[in-house]
Amino acid sequence: MTTETKEPQVQETQTAEQPTKSGLAYRPNVDILETENELTLVMDVPGVERDSLDIDFAEGVLTVQARVAQRYAANQRFLLREYGIGSFYRSFQVGEQIDVNGISAEYADGVLRIHLPKAEAAKPRKIAVSVAS
Amino acid sequence: MVLRRLNTGSPVAQLRNEMDWLVQDFFGRGSRPVAPTAAGFPALNVWEDGDSLFAEAELPGVKSEDLDISVMAGDLTIQGRRSTMAGEGVAFHRQERGAGQFNRVVRLPFEVDAQRVEASLRDGVLLVKLPKAESAKPKKIAIRAAE
Questions:
Q1: Strand B75-82 to strand B100-107: parallel, antiparallel, or no bridges (unpaired)?
Q2: SS3 of residue B37 by DSSP
Q3: Could you tell me if A87 and A22 are in contact, meaning their C-beta atoms sit under 8 angstroms apart?
Q4: How large is the ipTM?
């Protein structure tokens, strides 16, 4: 069974530069899933504490910012350094078929899940066929 | 580099949208290395102080029961798996988060006390602390005055 709608209801915004106050931010990896009743955004934000998450929705744009506390000493020398750490930022255009008042989020183990319920009008509907009399 | 990679294992499948790549590179904010798959997954940061070696990895969404960390014959091995939410009635519009089995082995630059290795997992970040063996600790050499 496929529940995919024709138009993607969540799309990344094409902003040239992201406006975090503290400068550049990392762009977290995201899965966007769709089920019968909602779209779910699953985002990897390792090292983020729950209180440092900032999720905003305004004018059709969902924005996620997450501050990451520095874990290393300023002059830390590494034997191996394969990734950097810093804040995360990413924003998405949310379509009109989403019930914006129903948006909710949960966070655990470095993974943020944002639930975007479909508006009633966008849900698949079974049409009952009545027997012609 | 002090550490030597022995086995890059089976890297977590990386499914990336080409468009993202371009946007990311063009705007120069892709400073997060895209290299983890080249070096093996997970990517590691490793440092030391006088007493211990520390290895850190970002493993968001991985449960501690799905992780297996071992030290043997001078190698640190981090194995585990991350599951997807794929299933009946789920359509993926975008899939950037890797899933599946991973296995990373790094050669330790000195002997560690395997009995006292500790690991913690917090907010998706794994930190392994490997205390140095006595023989690997820095020693102060007393200088005797010549007779």
A1: antiparallel
A2: helix
A3: yes
A4: 0.79
Q: Render pLDDT for B117-132 as a digit per residue (tens, 0 to 9).
A: 999 999 999 999 999 9
pLDDT digits (tens, 9 = 90+) for B26-70: 333 333 443 444 568 899 999 998 899 999 999 999 999 999 999
| Amino acid identity for residue B85 in this structure | M
B89's tokens? 């009635």
Give the closest residue to B45 by CA, choosing from B128, B102, B112, B114: B128
Going by DSSP bridges, is the β-strand pair A10-12/B75-82 parallel, antiparallel, or unpaired?
unpaired
Q: Which residues of B touch A71 (CB under 8 A)?
A: 56, 125
Closest CA to A100 of A59, A51, A64, A42: A59
Contact B95 A31 (CB under 8 A): yes
pLDDT at A82: 93
Closest Cα in chain A to B85? A33
